[in-house]
Give the backbone structure.
Amino acid sequence: MSTRILAASGAPPVAVTAARPWRGLPAAAIAILAAVALAAVAPDQGYLLNILMQAATYAIATAGLVVVLGYCGQISIAQAAFFGIGAYGVALGTADYGMNFFVALAVGAFIAGVFGLVLGIASLRLGGHYLAMVTISFQQILTLVLVNWISLTHGPDGVRNIPRPVLFGLSLAGGRAYLGLGLVALVIVTLAIWRLKSSRLGRAMQAVRDNELAASTCGIDIFGTKVIAFGISAVLGGIGGGLFAGGFQYISPDQFSFAESIVFLTMALLGGVQSPFGALLGTGLLIVLPEWLRFLRQVYLAVYGASVILIMVFLPDGLWGIVTERMRRRARPILGAVPRLPLLLLSGRATEEVVLEVSALAKHFGGLKALDGVNIAVRRGTVHALIGPNGSGKSTFINVVTGLYRPTAGRIRFTGRDITGFAPHQRNRAGLARTFQNIRVFKGMTVLENVMVGAERPGSDVAADPAGVTRRALAALDFVELRGDAHRMVGTLSYGHQRYVEIARALASSPEMLLLDEPAAGLNMTEKHGLGLLLQRLKGHGLTILIIDHDMALVEQVADHITVLNFGRHIADGTPHSVLTNPDVIAAYLGEPRREAA
């Protein structure tokens, strides 16, 4: 990431913070040269060469776990299966069918990727230990296939005499030359996965990892993101396996067993599963550490196991987590002005145009009618409040409108379109943004990254421009006065500031309408007053807002129109004065008649 100040004619200076591809080229070139130099000084054969070859190929496969587990939060204990598919792709392709090495490598990686996509699709609705069980089953099935399909895989005997490639007329049959190929491939994969984390797709994966509900209402396709993560992980496993087969020139089914999947998982967790550099560190340590401890003879395995356990217990973010934390502490504030949020450039007035129209909406949970024929029309530029006693159906209403629940009956129209059948991410892309009663921020990300997820909503005017996304996120943080905390992990903020981050994330998406579910919940009096002023500022710029809250002072402060629900039914609708003096509302919600101020 880099920051610079731009000055256009007649425009204020703008701080641009964005990844520049060309800035990464020198570092990549240096890393590749270092890999080639290491290969040049390595022995051409022998035990040390084998250790380096194993470390390079295993690290590539472990980088796949960084994507699926570290970035996307999906447990996969089948990486050895994808590693084996890639290895057998190269072994059978070159030794049995006479294919070019690199063609066979591509075929093996492709087949591994296909199986990864299928596994991702099949496991979409699973999580936690259920997902782990599915991946373990896949791993065990593949092992049985490799052992028993003798006509294809050669069975337990494995595949021998796997040829090494020729690249641009240069033979890589020698140990040093082939190790150089493996190390260069490792450098490319590591840098690519590192850059993926700060990309739009990478942030989408991390949002899915931290909170799927919030991610879906930020316009992220949960299904597609998970499937892509599984696919990338499988492809990297296949590439690592293919290079492993060429390096050792012999493979057998026992090299790709369930135990090896556990080894890959341990490598990722030990080094730091949220960074490819952590995976690289964990792989090297787990392969080299036993060699360092062999002088202990009979007890070296116990010392080795105890060392791994202690590191994982006392460093839950892995060894690389120490480096990441120090880098975060040294991050400098982002200085310079940015263009204000687009809505702040508008001076809006309430109109009669209906933005959200809900007709005869019903939601039943078995025999419970949480919503029973609710009709609401929210007009452009207004703040429309939805109130009612606990259990009246308010939160159910907003969850149905934003697509988290499917309605039992009724119709929802937004900006003239029927969105009743839309998924949550499709409704967000149409311009419907929301916050949650129980704060749902992405706690594994910084404040700035949280808000950037909102700015990257597909359909936003800056979604395809990385620099524009950063500017928009900074503008949203400026609006809620949190730019100074941009590089802090969002989980370290106070409850009230996390609420403001959630609002900033919604505003960064430039929504047509903002839905606020109990925004004042958990705030102290000072924070509630600040929230009221913030909502009045938004109202003055014409943003359409639907707010649910129990704080009548806040509702009266900002609302133009109030709808009241009780037992899932609409009982009152109108201006704040007419609603709050309605006898039915007083009986159902307020509990006693209101006294007018002098």
User: Anything to note?
Assistant: Residues 222-248 form the longest helix (27 residues).
